[in-house]
Amino acid sequence: MTTASGLVIRETTDADIPAMARIMSEVNPAHQWTPESLAHEISFLQAHPLGLHLAQWIVEEAGEPVATAAVLQFAGMYHQDRYHAEIMVLPAAERHGIGTRLADTVAAHLRGRGAREVLAGAYEHQPHALAFLARRGFTEAMRFYDNVLELTDFDLGQWAGHERVPDGVRVLSYPQLEAELGPDAALHAFHAGFAEAREDVPRTGDATELTLDDFRKRFENPALFPEGLLLAVTDMGEVVAVSELWRADGNATRLNTGLTGTRRAWRRRGLALALKLAAIRVALAAGVTEIWTGNATTNAPMLAINDRLGFRPRPAFVEMKWGGV
């Protein structure tokens, strides 16, 4: 579609992935994408057995990509009538009506799909973006902090004793668990512990069951850092707590935290703190200077652990919702 102002809005092809990754990274520099990581995410969504929906657009001005948008469904919080919408406009192209035109395109697509719930969002220090969503009927549903730990002056010696775990439990990396149990048994044990721990993570909808096939595909992610997958494992080989580190796209000095969580029967025994400290030890050995983690502002137990360790919040991402299922 070519607008009256000469903007071209069209659906994307695989050839647009590098431009999309560049726009997404420039719009949200705290969370970078590479063409490889974006291609992996697109491939995962398109091949998912739930039949997840994905539609993407790119906007060109004088032949140059200046914005991108997407309507998608996530496997982790799936409902057939729930969609997530993203609109990203390069800073230099903002306030020219491009976002409005993309929003109209996205809205028409969602109407055609019969969407009953749409989730979108922006950061709290972007009031114009939040107002943009509010004018379209979105209201705040939840907030998520980026919490950042600077490792330059972190002193693990001050935490002596806090890495201890209960009798009958050891801290292992996933490669160590594989070496002990074998690949198949290790994968099943990791999946069982991870799947239960993630169920209670705050989110704006019910968690979808994490299948073993979905879990296995996580190991194809270009950001995989196997030594940063830290597990609390019983003498019987049961994974009872998890804390994950993943590589950050385009930044060798940073690691991102995935899930940190504990199975219900093992909570309040210090496992989460012990695993976070083990993860920090791994990060320091890798020469990393920052660890980032995301937490819902309602996740008081995890926020308390992170605050105690020295993680400090950045501006929160405000998830906004239209409708409901």
TrEMBL record:
The lineage of its organism: Bacteria, Thermotogati, Deinococcota, Deinococci, Deinococcales. Its EC number is 2.3.1.-. This is GNAT family N-acetyltransferase. Keywords: Acyltransferase, Transferase. GO terms for molecular function: acyltransferase activity. InterPro entries: Acyl_CoA_acyltransferase, Bact_Acetyltransf, GNAT_dom. Pfam families: Acetyltransf_1. Gene3D superfamilies: 3.40.630.30. Residues 7-161, 177-325 form the N-acetyltransferase domain. It comes from Deinococcus rufus. It is an enzyme of class 2 (transferase). The keyword Signal does not apply.
